[in-house]
Amino acid sequence: MVYIRAKKVKSDQYLYLVKSVWNSKKKTSKQEIVKYLGKATDVIKDDIPIEYRNDPKVLSVLASFNPKDIKKREEATRKSKKQIYKKLTEGNIEECVKIYEEYVKIFNASDFFDKILKPVMYDIGEDWSSNKISIATEHVASNIAQTLVKIIMDKVSGSSNKKKILICVPLGEEHHLGCDVLETYLTIKGYKVYNMATSMPTESIINFIENNKPDIVFISITLSDNISAGQRLVKKIQAEFSIPILVGGYAMQKEKIPKFDAKVISNVNLDEMPKIIRTT
């Protein structure tokens, strides 16, 4: 059984999706958080994990928090996703930037990445794999998306007064859009970010850590085929350094999450990352 729990902080309500778990030994149930959803007035249906998205009780509670505003936000999100898909696959970077700028007038940068760019890039990947779009169109969309992230990056600057974060990928992983998005968001939040989002030998990553001494290493894995390489990278880093390691990316969004000797980040919003970093 899942339901939404609200927690009031000062004058704002924040929502959590929780479930009841039965303890047969103690013959009691306890609450477990499935996902932190965010500020009540900002949460929309797409923020609910897909397996619970049409639960009547969940939707009822969600609608109780300023339903007119939620409907407006859901419509803005649907419209922006449709627009950005079209402009990415057309290779129109100017229109993509305009869509971003209009969207962040209502939402914020992390919402754009979480609710617009990330799901649209997943859709583009799925459409390519099912032959709905060509490989050429997929490449154009990916390149335009990376350019868009860089443009957004140029619009922000971080104070660099917090932890230093190294973002990298295992050998063989060629996808780095997620790394670029994470770099942009964490830079906005004031972190010093080293983005090594290019497949390179593990020894090069080890040397970089030795020379730059980041506080946390984040390893991004997009393709499931690269999970084993990611596991080896984690072990190599741990053998050399006592440093927290986070593992995330599309390959970690599966129903069965691979095991790592590190903290796996799965199905979280970008605005949860600073808290995860603080508590790691």
Describe it for me?
- The chain is built from 9 helices and 8 strands.
- It has 280 residues and is α/β, with parallel strands linked by helices.
- The chain folds into 3 domains: 2-64, no CATH class; 68-155, Methyltransferase, Methionine Synthase (B12-binding Domains), Chain A, domain 1; 164-278, 3-Layer(aba) Sandwich (Rossmann fold), CATH 3.40.50.280.
- The strands form 2 sheets. Strands 5-4-6-7-8 form a 5-stranded parallel sheet, with helices on both faces. A 3-stranded antiparallel sheet has the order 1-2-3.
- The mean pLDDT is 86.
- Global structural class: alpha/beta
Specify the CATH class of the largest domain.
Alpha Beta
CATH homologous superfamily classification of the largest domain: Cobalamin-binding domain
Oligomer: single chain
SS element count, helices:
9
CATH architecture of the largest domain: 3-Layer(aba) Sandwich
